[in-house]
């Protein structure tokens, strides 16, 4: 078939929309005119899951296409903004006296908090890249930290099974110490903003096998969810009112967050389930903050509670799309499972290929790609909808510990025990930039939601930006 | 004020009173009461000095009592947090130091070269024929002694049919035939009851392997499809080796450890 040269014609000078008509060189019109929104949304075109990068012909050459059938070209709107790759280390923030175990940016990217083995949580000033506050109070290693979706509170859990809440603006403790678990806290997760704009409830998972939902306003435990027989490794609060928890007893349990009733148990893994990721993770983390609207100086989200809730709800609905939330879980049995926990007990797909245990899985912010970091020195990318294998990113020489996506889903940064961080391009599926500089293993990595900075902390006690 | 040792001399010659020990004991018992009576009655400068001295004595006594109490108890050192902070995902795993990894690699290479495989129960007592096989006398006069009966637990396959009784040399009694084994996963520390697929190797003799005799140290193959393990290619693993860790003929069940 002769390649048709598309020519855009805009007969109706409509301000908002453009009518496009594909025309042949000879002048014969091909098909009927269709309209397209005028906003300059960058699109990516896919034929049978292969992206059209160079030209339609080249892409089709690799595939057997029947010339009689109608060819479906699927377009995917890409993120409007682009995040530039981080290229160098701007500063090395010292201050912790023991290894840095967890690092997290606030949902707007305004604050940075890091928990460490010296029992303190430190807040860092991002504009000057110097230490701001040191929050003392824990008596053992600070294992996990979590920002509330409105960015006004930080919860930190320690190895002595205590949870503290901090105010990032002053560095002081807010409310009471939350005690109740009998063994250390493995994971913390706040209730999403669009379900409750006050950011009141916090879920904590612990080695003792129970999950506690805390009321941070009253400072007490609201519900205790016990059913797991071994340590709960990860807990995620979904946007549909369901809570997901994965555990070392090889199961994932789905609970109703309203009354704490167990809905479903997802079985299938053959060893400990280490990590989970929800397709709507990124949007639940950032709440009402839209990364496209980020400014150079990150600000707090402003607006009344109702406005914030609406905005968060809008963003959530947009990312979620039509189907229910998808959950991917990675385990010590070297495989990942893709589930639709709200609907089905059976997994959608079992993703095999890794040669060692999987430490972290993450959905990209636009939910199209799943990245899994494993102890076999590689990161594998999978399709976010079907779970099909896309590619392997090799380059690290030792176990990959943590990964983080940039807000536009184009770049991925990974920190590993070989003390380097690597930035990968998700489109070309190759290494973009190598970031050496740490002296010892890198335990925690995070990319700020406004895309400006990457923070990483590790065994060498310093935080690098 | 005696000038000479006549008191001691008398003691040496005649000994003490018969109730001396009793009196001594009772006097010591009265001593604290006497001291407190004296302390109460004293007045003036003498009293001040005495009370000061007594106070110091009391403090000292209390300290020694407390030290004795804490002698055997071990207290948790609350102040110090242990070194070697590790993130939550590494907590339940033993981190291997780099030196250990290298030495382990070398050791594994050496073992592979030597052909020795690592099993949880490396050495077992070899079982002699008289222990495992019992002589069965047959014939009209019970003189023929060519039949043998297996006295240990054994495994026969699914499609097993006995040879015609006149010709079978080895008898494996139905009561000693087992189909399932309790297999423990060494890392998960969970035990599953899995069906046996076959006997891979009996360390005592290849004859026992062919017969299917299961004793301590035998490597058997078990059906692990229940566990849900998967290979890298995505295929489901349904058979794995396990080594028997108990004496099944004594316990009535087969306990094994999975060889991962």
From TrEMBL, chain A:
<dbReference type="Pfam" id="PF23389">
    <property type="entry name" value="Beta-prop_WDR19_1st"/>
</dbReference>
<keyword id="KW-0914">Notch signaling pathway</keyword>
<feature type="repeat" description="WD">
    <location>
        <begin position="93"/>
        <end position="134"/>
    </location>
</feature>
<dbReference type="InterPro" id="IPR019775">
    <property type="entry name" value="WD40_repeat_CS"/>
</dbReference>
<feature type="repeat" description="WD">
    <location>
        <begin position="225"/>
        <end position="265"/>
    </location>
</feature>
<feature type="repeat" description="WD">
    <location>
        <begin position="351"/>
        <end position="392"/>
    </location>
</feature>
<dbReference type="InterPro" id="IPR001680">
    <property type="entry name" value="WD40_rpt"/>
</dbReference>
<dbReference type="InterPro" id="IPR011047">
    <property type="entry name" value="Quinoprotein_ADH-like_sf"/>
</dbReference>
<dbReference type="GO" id="GO:0005730">
    <property type="term" value="C:nucleolus"/>
</dbReference>
<dbReference type="InterPro" id="IPR020472">
    <property type="entry name" value="WD40_PAC1"/>
</dbReference>
<dbReference type="GO" id="GO:0007219">
    <property type="term" value="P:Notch signaling pathway"/>
</dbReference>
<dbReference type="InterPro" id="IPR001632">
    <property type="entry name" value="WD40_G-protein_beta-like"/>
</dbReference>
<keyword id="KW-0539">Nucleus</keyword>
<keyword id="KW-0677">Repeat</keyword>
<keyword id="KW-0853">WD repeat</keyword>
<feature type="repeat" description="WD">
    <location>
        <begin position="435"/>
        <end position="465"/>
    </location>
</feature>
<feature type="repeat" description="WD">
    <location>
        <begin position="178"/>
        <end position="215"/>
    </location>
</feature>
<dbReference type="Pfam" id="PF00400">
    <property type="entry name" value="WD40"/>
</dbReference>
<dbReference type="InterPro" id="IPR057855">
    <property type="entry name" value="Beta-prop_WDR19_1st"/>
</dbReference>
<dbReference type="InterPro" id="IPR036322">
    <property type="entry name" value="WD40_repeat_dom_sf"/>
</dbReference>
<feature type="repeat" description="WD">
    <location>
        <begin position="393"/>
        <end position="434"/>
    </location>
</feature>
<feature type="domain" description="WDR19 first beta-propeller">
    <location>
        <begin position="107"/>
        <end position="262"/>
    </location>
</feature>
UniProtKB/TrEMBL annotation, chain B:
<keyword id="KW-0539">Nucleus</keyword>
<keyword id="KW-0698">rRNA processing</keyword>
<feature type="compositionally biased region" description="Basic and acidic residues">
    <location>
        <begin position="16"/>
        <end position="34"/>
    </location>
</feature>
<comment type="function">
    <text>Involved in the biogenesis of the 60S ribosomal subunit. May play a part in the quality control of pre-60S particles.</text>
</comment>
<protein>
    <recommendedName>
        <fullName>Ribosome biogenesis protein NSA2 homolog</fullName>
    </recommendedName>
</protein>
<dbReference type="GO" id="GO:0030684">
    <property type="term" value="C:preribosome"/>
</dbReference>
<feature type="compositionally biased region" description="Basic residues">
    <location>
        <begin position="35"/>
        <end position="44"/>
    </location>
</feature>
<dbReference type="GO" id="GO:0005730">
    <property type="term" value="C:nucleolus"/>
</dbReference>
<dbReference type="InterPro" id="IPR039411">
    <property type="entry name" value="NSA2_fam"/>
</dbReference>
<dbReference type="InterPro" id="IPR022309">
    <property type="entry name" value="Ribosomal_Se8/biogenesis_NSA2"/>
</dbReference>
<feature type="region of interest" description="Disordered">
    <location>
        <begin position="1"/>
        <end position="44"/>
    </location>
</feature>
<keyword id="KW-0690">Ribosome biogenesis</keyword>
<dbReference type="Pfam" id="PF01201">
    <property type="entry name" value="Ribosomal_S8e"/>
</dbReference>
<dbReference type="GO" id="GO:0006364">
    <property type="term" value="P:rRNA processing"/>
</dbReference>
<keyword id="KW-0687">Ribonucleoprotein</keyword>
<comment type="similarity">
    <text>Belongs to the eukaryotic ribosomal protein eS8 family. Ribosome biogenesis protein NSA2 subfamily.</text>
</comment>
<dbReference type="GO" id="GO:0042273">
    <property type="term" value="P:ribosomal large subunit biogenesis"/>
</dbReference>
<comment type="subunit">
    <text>Component of the pre-66S ribosomal particle.</text>
</comment>
